[in-house]
Every structure is written in C-alpha cells, then in structure tokens.
C-alpha cells in the first residue's frame, strides 16, 4: 500500500492561510492503514487546527469528512454537498488522492496535508518499510521474492556489492543487506543456482514518468 | 461550577483524569474509603483499561476547555490486559507532541502508573497535578 506521513502542523497552517472554511478530507484506504489520513487522523488534525487557531486568536471553520477512496472519482461524487461552503479542501490522501480530488473539483483549491513517501507494508505497530519501487520490470522470481531495486541501497541487480559487514549494508549499518537476504532465501528454497545467472542491465526507461496503462 | 467556589482568590483548574478500572480508579476509590482529602478539581472518567485511551479523548478534553488531563493506569508490568498501560503511555507521548505543535504545551498532560492499593498516591497525584496546572493558569482554549 501507499505509505504517507502527515506534514508538520506549522506547515499545514501556513498552507491554509487565507482560507476561512476548510474541509479536512480523509481517505479510508492506504493512508488510513498507515495512520496518516484516515477517519481518526482527520478528527485529530481538525481538532488540533481548531485549538491552534483559538490560541492564535483565529476562528476558522474546519469541517471533517472521510471518503472510502480519494483516488477514484466514483467515491468523490458524494462530497459535493460537503464542499459547498468550503474555501479549500485539505486532503489527507496520498498524492494521487490530492490530484484526483483536484481534477474532480477544479474550482476549489485542494491542499496536501500529507507527504507521500513510498509503497510498503507495516512491520510492527507504527513502523512501515518500503518494499516496491514500481520499476515496471519485476525480477522477484529471480531474487527469492526480495526486491534488490528497493531494498539494496545501491539498487544492484547483480549483488552483493562487497561492502556489507555482518549481513548489514555499508550505506546504513542498521539496514539489512538485501543481497544477503536474497542468498539466504534462495538457499532455503534450494535455488542458489539462480545466483549464477547474471541479470541484464535494468531497463529504467520503464520507470519514465508519467506512466499509464490501457487495457 | 462547584469547584470555582472552593476559593474566591485563586484559579481552580478543571482536570480530567482518565483512570483504568482495575488500578487507578480503584486507587481513587480507596482514597475515598480512607477519607483522604484531595482537590475536587479532578474529574474522574473510568476506562475499562488505560489502553483504551485514544488521542482524540485527550484532545477533545482540551478542546472543550480542560486545563489539565492525566491518564492513570496500572503499574508497569501489572496491567490486567498485559500491556494496555504501555500502549496508553505511547499515546500520551504522541498527544504531548501534538499539544506542543498546537502551542498549548505538553506539561498540561501527564501519565501516571499506580496500583489499586495506592489510595495515598492517587491523592498525592491529584494534589500535585492541581498545583502544577494552577501555576500554568487557565487553558487558552477555555470557552471553545
């Protein structure tokens, strides 16, 4: 899923300067799971903004609403009523959500309340890790289900690099060496022979933006 | 309000205490049974476990004008739901960071751990917290 993190309150307050009636719009999918933009985060942020306003002598209106998914227009149809009086929408969706809401409602400013970071998964409560870079050319079948593009600091497709120490990465000693993990996994599956095959040069043209798919 | 009649000369804060059923609430009960005096500024809200506390409960208390809030759970390692009090501590720490960002300051919120036999400690905590919040003065959010 897409992992995002809420922007600092100060930055959000600077962004909403000049607007008087703001709809804080959450997204109930990826960013709700990573505790950045779901129903509860909308309530916490709106409450925080109201209190910060009161302390600084302002009295803006912060409305709260969360849609199931901001990145599909069908889910945005129901919010027309909610944005009727709003000067701006503060979106707690990922970058895709912010743009989808902007495209659906071009007449109203849509501001990002989150910084969208990566595609990843939860490791434990409150900890998420990146797992996929969306390179457009998956080689996980060759690498024991562990992505070297994402999890190797150097993105090597023919690793390891020789800079690892005790299974850790030389770039960041707290990070596991992806290629050592690949070796261990292939060993468990008795597929170490896959390491003899050298991977061809990675075609990074498949990562050229913007990408789209037409079925 | 009743607590405002305690003294005409000094500020009487409103302090919301979220207390776990098994320890802190029982300690407050014991303080009563022991006829211990503690400031009536403390408004106790019973939780089934301090681990049920939510950031929103605390923020809403402040938003509605509480001058101080504390969460009280079982002693560390003694939670009846294993680690509810540790989870509560993490949420209190997170809420403290939010209160700093808001500009209210984190000192108006505290977390305490106590056992059900510590009626005396509950009364002490109630007194300490009341004195501390009294020094800070009324919350700037009063009347929201």
List keywords for this structure.
heterodimer, A: about 220 residues, alpha/beta, Rossmann fold, four-stranded parallel β-sheet, three-stranded antiparallel β-sheet, about 25% helix, about 20% strand, elongated, B: about 140 residues, 4 strands, about 40% helix
Summarize the structure.
The complex is a heterodimer of chains A (215) and B (144). Chain A is of the alpha/beta class.
Number of helices of chain B: 4
Secondary-structure-based class of chain A equals alpha/beta
Summarize model confidence as the mean pLDDT of chain A: 95
Order of the strands making up the biggest sheet of chain B: 2-1-3-4
* Helix/strand order of chain A, N-terminal first: EHEHHEHEHEEEHH
Structural class of chain B: alpha/beta
CATH architecture of the largest domain in chain A: 3-Layer(aba) Sandwich
Largest sheet: number of strands, sense, barrel closure of chain A: 4 strands, parallel
Oligomer: heterodimer
Estimated share of beta-strand residues of chain A: 15-25%
Describe the structure in your own words.
The complex is a heterodimer of chains A (215) and B (144). With 215 residues, chain A is α/β, with parallel strands linked by helices. In chain A, strand 4 (88-91), helix 5 and strand 5 (110-112) form a beta-alpha-beta unit. Chain A has two domains: 2-118, Rossmann fold; 133-207, no CATH class. A four-stranded parallel β-sheet of chain A has the order 3-2-4-5, sandwiched between helices. In chain A, strands 1-6-7 form a three-stranded antiparallel β-sheet. Chain A is built from seven helices and seven strands; from the N terminus they run βαβααβαβαβββαα. Chain B is α/β, with parallel strands linked by helices and 144 residues long. Chain B has one domain. Chain B has helices spanning 24-33, 55-63, 84-102, 119-136, and strands at 15-20, 42-47, 68-73, 109-113. In chain B, strands 2-1-3-4 form a four-stranded parallel β-sheet, with helices on both faces. The relative contact order of chain B is 0.24. The A-B interface holds A 8-10, 40, 43-44, 47-48, 50-52, 54-56 and B 54-56, 59-60, 62-63, 98, 101-104, 140-141, 144.
């Amino acid at each position: 899923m897409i992992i995002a993190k809420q922007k600092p309150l100060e930055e959000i307050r600077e962004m909403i300067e000049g607007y008087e009636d703001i709809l804080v719009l959450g997204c109930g999918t990826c960013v709700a799971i990573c505790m950045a933009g779901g129903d509860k985060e909308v309530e916490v942020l709106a409450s925080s903004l109201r209190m910060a306003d009161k302390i600084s002598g302002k009295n803006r209106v912060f409305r709260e609403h969360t849609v199931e998914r901001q990145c599909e227009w069908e889910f945005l149809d129901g919010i027309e009523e909610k944005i009727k009086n709003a000067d701006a929408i503060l979106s707690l969706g990922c970058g895709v959500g912010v743009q989808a809401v902007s495209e659906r409602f071009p007449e109203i400013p849509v501001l990002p309340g989150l910084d969208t970071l990566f595609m990843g998964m939860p490791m434990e409560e409150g900890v998420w890790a990146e797992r996929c870079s969306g390179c457009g050319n998956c080689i996980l079948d060759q690498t024991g289900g562990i992505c070297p593009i994402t999890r190797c600091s150097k993105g090597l497709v023919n690793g390891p690099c020789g800079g690892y120490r005790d299974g850790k990465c030389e770039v960041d000693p707290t990070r596991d060496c992806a290629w050592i993990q690949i070796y261990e996994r292939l060993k468990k599956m008795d597929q170490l022979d896959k390491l003899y095959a050298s991977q061809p040069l990675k075609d990074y043209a498949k990562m050229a933006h913007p990408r789209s798919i037409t079925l | 309000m009743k607590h405002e009649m305690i003294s005409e000369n000094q500020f009487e804060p409103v302090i919301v205490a979220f207390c776990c059923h098994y320890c802190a609430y029982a300690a407050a009960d014991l303080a009563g049974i022991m006829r211990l005096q503690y400031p009536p500024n403390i408004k106790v809200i019973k939780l089934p476990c301090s681990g049920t506390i939510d950031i929103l409960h605390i923020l809403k208390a402040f938003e509605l004008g509480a001058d101080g809030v504390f969460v009280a759970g079982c002693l560390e390692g003694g939670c009846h739901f294993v680690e509810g009090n540790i989870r509560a501590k993490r949420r209190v720490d997170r809420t403290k960071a939010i209160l700093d960002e808001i500009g209210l300051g984190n000192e108006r919120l505290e977390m305490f751990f106590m056992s059900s036999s510590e009626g005396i400690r509950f009364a002490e905590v109630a007194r300490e917290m009341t004195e501390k919040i009294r020094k800070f003065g009324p919350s700037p959010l009063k009347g929201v």
